[in-house]
Design brief:
By secondary structure, this protein is mainly β. The protein is built from one helix and twelve strands. It binds manganese (II) ion.
């Protein structure tokens, strides 16, 4: 066994997130593992940019209420205890609802070719975010 002490928490980069979001890496597997697990904490109103994951992503909500949107206009409202599976290459965003914090574990696999597992796209603008909050 290997005990990994509590690691540092960093503010998520503004190029990829709107509002204040904090990332804590839990596990970044080394070959042959491709597992990557992090804890992502969103303050009220904060959300990711649109993006997609080459090998998909599983989100497990640990606190609060959040929103996950896809390009077809679907918005899923998630709560602590929920698990949401985002399939490979489906463009989506995730964030807190407007008036609550939301934290989730991000569980994903890296690409077998070593390429970046996540492709980042444009921000979710305020109008689209406000619409999502009404769903
Ligand atoms: Mn994602």
């Amino acid at each position: 066994m290997e005990l990994k002490p509590v690691g540092p928490t960093a503010q998520a980069p503004a190029q990829r997130f709107t509002g204040d979001v904090y990332l804590t890496m839990i596990y970044d597997g080394q070959d042959p593992s491709r597992m990557n697990v992090s804890l992502v904490r969103f303050t009220p109103g904060a959300r990711s940019n649109w993006h997609r994951h080459a090998v998909g992503q599983t989100l497990h909500v640990t606190e609060g209420v959040g929103l996950v949107g896809t390009r077809d206009g679907q918005v899923v409202r998630v709560r602590a205890g929920d698990t949401l599976i985002c399939p490979p290459d489906e463009e989506h965003w995730h964030g807190a609802a407007a008036n609550t914090f939301m934290s989730h574990f991000s569980i994903l696999e890296k690409r077998s070719d070593g390429g970046d597992p996540t492709t980042w796209l444009e921000p979710v603008d305020d109008e689209a975010y406000d619409t999502a909050n009404q769903k």
